[in-house]
Design a protein that fits this description.
This protein is an alpha+beta fold and about 120 residues long. The chain is built from three helices and nine strands; from the N terminus they run ββββαββββααβ. The strands form two sheets. Strands 3-4-5-6-7 form a five-stranded antiparallel beta sheet, with helices on one face. A four-stranded antiparallel beta sheet has the order 8-1-2-9. The longest helix has 12 residues.
């Protein structure tokens, strides 16, 4: 998952009842269970925050994003961030001037642990 403060790029996502986009990186089974709960407005049980599973929320109405790293207490993501496999590659690409979409493409091109369709979400105009 990559965000440059304006857009969110991810492969594992779902739209919540409140209109926000929720996504995760890490363990697929834990992530899918957490997404179902978040989509229904419920808290994520602590056992779903495994050592490599984190959740995120993006509001396309405002362009704001939050990370739920090992906790149901979100932290707003106010600058460029990358999470999951290839995060260091994506951060490096953004440091060299790539936007979030380009950075996700770089990570997917270089890392065998990245790939698949990359979905793009941005602030609604």
């Amino acid at each position: 998952m990559v965000t440059d403060g304006r857009k969110l790029y991810t492969q594992k996502w779902r739209k919540a009842k409140d209109g926000t986009i929720i996504a995760f990186v890490g363990d697929y089974n834990h992530g899918i269970q957490g997404l179902r709960l978040m989509a229904d407005g419920q808290a994520i049980p602590s056992h779903l925050f495994s050592k490599d599973t984190d959740f995120f929320r993006f509001d396309p109405r405002t362009g704001r994003a939050w990370g739920y790293e090992k906790s149901n207490h979100p932290q707003e993501l106010k600058r460029s961030n990358a999470f999951g496999s290839g995060d260091d590659l994506a951060l490096g690409a953004m440091a060299m001037g790539a936007d979030a979409k380009q950075a996700a493409a770089v990570a997917c091109r270089i890392s065998d642990a990245c790939g698949g369709k990359v979905w793009s979400f941005s602030k609604e105009s």
